[in-house]
Design goal:
Strands 1-2 form a two-stranded antiparallel sheet. The two termini are 34 Å apart. The protein contains six helices and two strands; from the N terminus they run ααααββαα. The chain is mostly helical and 204 residues long.
Length: 204
């Protein structure tokens, strides 16, 4: 298991090489985010999907010998509950100092979830009177469930920062697994976790 970890875009805009975006004219409803914001939102979605995949691959070996726990994880749809279960498994089965490092990564994922959810699940809106031919969203809102406003402006740069933060956590988890496996050219996540698992107590 090896992959190249790439950052999002360039240090200036993240869109070097993009001369133009596809036309929106075929859509009946014109959404508020600008083309650049839509690109950034898409990067958040894809980066989070990559992170979720690696998280699932990491959890599965931890509950491989416990059918009930494996079923609970696979049937739980709420991401926070899945991460809580992951945290419990790490506390029980991984030894220190690796346990502390992995719990730190889980905490970073939890801290990013709220930002990702507001970007992905919120309804985007723009200022009143914003031009239709040059849209730019000013925020994502949850109309059905009132919530606190963002402390930061949801412009293109800030959305890209969330995508980069997700990418960074993904890279941290991947690097953790590589080191746990002993830095081989290829490895299985299950083998990496075996190397850092607590020795079973025959009396327990």
């Amino acid at each position: 298991m090896r992959s190249m970890i790439r950052s999002v875009g360039s240090s200036r805009s993240g869109l070097d090489g993009f001369a133009m975006f596809p036309s929106r004219k075929k859509f009946r409803y014109q959404v508020a985010p600008s083309d650049r914001q839509l690109w950034a939102i898409g990067m958040v979605v894809v980066q989070w999907s990559n992170l979720e995949t690696l998280l699932s691959l990491t959890v599965q070996p931890l509950c491989a010998n416990d059918t009930a726990v494996a079923l609970e994880f696979s049937s739980t749809r709420a991401f926070k509950l899945r991460m809580d279960l992951f945290e419990t498994l790490v506390e029980r089965k991984i030894r220190d100092p690796e346990r502390t490092d992995l719990l730190s990564i889980i905490l970073a994922v939890k801290n990013l979830q709220q930002q990702r959810d507001r970007i992905v699940h919120g309804n985007w809106g723009s200022e009143e009177g914003a031009p239709i031919d040059n849209p730019s969203a000013t925020g994502a809102f949850k109309w059905a469930v009132p919530s606190k406003p963002f402390e930061w402006k949801l412009d293109f740069g800030r959305i890209v920062k969330v995508a980069r933060d997700i990418d960074e956590v993904h890279a941290r988890l991947f690097s953790f697994l590589v080191q746990a496996a002993g830095n081989p050219p290829q490895f299985l996540v299950s083998d990496a976790l075996k190397r850092i698992s607590k020795t079973p107590n025959p009396l327990s």
